[in-house]
Amino acid sequence: MKFFIDTADVGEIRSWNETGLIDGVTTNPSLILKSGRDINEALAEICDIVAGPVSGEVTALDTAGMISQGKTLAKIASNICIKLPLTLDGLKACKALTGEGFKTNVTLCFSANQALLAAKAGATFVSPFIGRLDDINIDGMELIEEIRAIFDNYDFKTEILAASLRTANHVKDCAISGADVATIPPSTLEKLVAHPLTDKGLAAFLADWEKTGQSIG
Ligand code: G3P
Asked: Model-level pTM?
């Protein structure tokens, strides 16, 4: 499973990219707001740091506007992936933009039927939002399983990009369910690393090592 980082915070991206674990980046208008950055400048910097796909989201609601904004964003760098909302206009824009060779990410997907439409429109990625389904007491992970089954039935090449992931268990369950990509906020990435028994074990080893009086190298 690929890891994308779900933030427009360039400092966080630079730091997490040093781990070698980051395969791409997703942003959205809320994340751009949170970063306090100009979208063009932020995306250009991010695309310089991370070689993989970097999603930048359009804000137009009509197909022509989405296509025009998508092409503007794509001029920033060759690894820009145009993020489009899962609406009828968004699907039309997806079909047109993928037809012209652009990478696309159809976002705000909340049902298997919506994902099927995104795949039929040729999306590079479709983004089901897990946490927001959990918020309304619908099992977000079941959606990943349904989409995986549908895409495998018909050999769709669209990648399942699990989004709105808020917990370490979300990430693990995505991997079990066969998501192609998990986009993970920095705070959740930190939770993947941490385990109290790792900290406890390390402290015990270091205490015993101290008692040996030895040093390495
Ligand atoms: O990638 C989508 C993500 O940013 C949304 O997450 O936590 O606002 O539902 P959240």
From this structure: 0.96
